């Protein structure tokens, strides 16, 4: 008989990568200086209620803090997520991840995952050993969202602090608060409370199966792109250093509405003159950097509503193929 409750539960592939959600500190009041130490299986064991909503298969891709994730690991995560999603018996994928660079992995996956099945990225702001640790409930909520039929086709989702946020828009906006993921302008897609998931919105930007970006099975590297921060009195040396290092693109975390200081303007001219893509985003954190009349003559691209770190993700994927400035701008307009 294949009728047991266990067999009726959707199968969720749980991919562990590390982060605070998998970390332990020496005391329950210690909220920093913790160590990533818990295997992904043990995160599930710590929340027995999860067994009533899903059956799990596990993969530990790495167990590190997210600011240590490099290109090789990012690509490995993406290849493994695609591989799990391609298995018929797998209903959804949940990825546990450090929050520092969670938005970068989530947006990258949003562009290269080729499936409509739900993919949820989740983390925690407090280590598992802390008073009021947020990881267990965030994980329960992530799985609730992953097994919710309405989550299909919405691109990669970030679940933190009771909110369901599109990977395109999720960004970390606080260093320590459990309500760390802010969604300026666009708002969250929905909310989750226990097993109850309520959606209010769907993302309109291209993602997953509607995204043109696709990783080759053997894809082992991505074009190098640097982010440079602009400020009063900036010099051109960092632009020169980036170009000498052989970057294929530069994203400027510009002041205000993506303004260029004299040094950044000189850097942009140098970059474009060498065939290196130059995207101007903003260091402000809210609002769009819309194309200006000066962009095309200068050969510069406007990042629209992508923050610098997400603009870098899109630019690296865009540079996998030769594209001129106008083609790049079109991508930033559409994605
Ligand atoms: N240090 C952590 C990380 O791996 C922060 C976190 O997970 O909240 O990104």
Descriptive labels:
single chain; 335 residues; alpha/beta; Rossmann fold; 2 domains; 8-stranded mixed beta sheet; 4-stranded parallel beta sheet; 28% helix; binds aspartic acid
What topology does this entry show?
Blueprint (H helix, E strand, L loop, with lengths): L4 H4 L2 E8 L4 E2 L10 E2 L3 H6 L9 E10 L6 H15 L4 E7 L5 H11 L6 E4 L12 H12 L9 E5 L2 E4 L4 E2 L8 E2 L7 E4 L2 E4 L25 E5 L7 H8 L4 E6 L7 H12 L3 E6 L12 H4 L2 E2 L5 H11 L6 H10 L1
Parallel strand pairs: 1-4, 1-5, 5-6, 6-7, 13-14, 14-15, 15-16
Antiparallel strand pairs: 2-3, 7-8, 8-11, 9-10, 11-12
Bound molecules: aspartic acid (ASP).
Written description of the protein model:
The structure is a single chain. By secondary structure, this protein is of the alpha/beta class. It folds into two domains: 200 residues, Rossmann fold; 110 residues, Rossmann fold. It contains ten helices and 16 strands. Strands 4-1-5-6-7-8-11-12 form an eight-stranded mixed β-sheet, sandwiched between helices. A four-stranded parallel β-sheet has the order 13-14-15-16, with helices on both faces. Strand 13, helix 6 and strand 14 form a beta-alpha-beta unit. Helix 6 runs parallel beside helix 7. The longest helix is centred in the first third of the chain and has 15 residues. The N and C termini lie far apart (48 Å). Bound molecules: aspartic acid. Aspartic acid binds next to loops.
